[in-house]
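Below is a filled-in request sheet from our internal design queue. Each sheet records the structural input a requester submitted and the sequence that came back. We keep these sheets so that new team members can see what a complete request looks like end to end.

REQUESTER: design group, bay 2
PRIORITY: normal
MODE: inverse folding
CHAIN LENGTH: 130
BACKBONE (tokenized):
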């Protein structure tokens, strides 16, 4: 499924997205982003997981993150090391508070092109302003 088809499917049934820049809007964007990443993960699991591991390695080597963020990154390292793709997809698309928390420190940065990210953002913004 192409990114724009996935975005339409994801956002088609969504109602009541809150104003741009709010936590709820950012959570909605993160969930939509990860749902598109899931499609990429299904198509190219090795490439997506390799990038996630590289991101984690780069982030944990530096001192740009505090102790709380480092703990979240280590949690992701554990998840990536133990979970199969199906379980990883469940975690990435979990709509609970726990799912939101994990997406806020997601190692899947760069899994989509800047153009794909902008498509997702534009779709979320459009839903928020309707």
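RETURNED SEQUENCE:
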């Amino acid at each position: 499924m192409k990114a724009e088809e996935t975005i339409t499917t994801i956002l088609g049934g969504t109602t009541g997205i809150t104003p741009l820049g709010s936590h709820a809007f950012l959570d909605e964007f993160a969930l939509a982003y990860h749902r598109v990443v899931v499609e990429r993960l299904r198509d190219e699991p090795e490439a997506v997981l390799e990038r996630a591991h590289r991101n984690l390695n780069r982030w944990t080597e530096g001192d740009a993150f505090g102790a709380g963020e480092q703990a979240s990154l280590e949690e992701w390292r554990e998840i990536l090391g133990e979970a199969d793709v199906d379980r990883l997809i469940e975690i990435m698309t979990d709509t609970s508070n726990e799912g939101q928390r994990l997406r806020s420190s997601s190692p899947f940065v760069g899994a989509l092109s800047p153009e794909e990210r902008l498509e997702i953002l534009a779709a979320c913004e459009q839903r928020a302003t309707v």
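SHEET NOTES:
- Confidence is low (pLDDT under 50) at residues 3-17.
- The chain has one domain: 3-12+20-129.
FILED BY: M.R.
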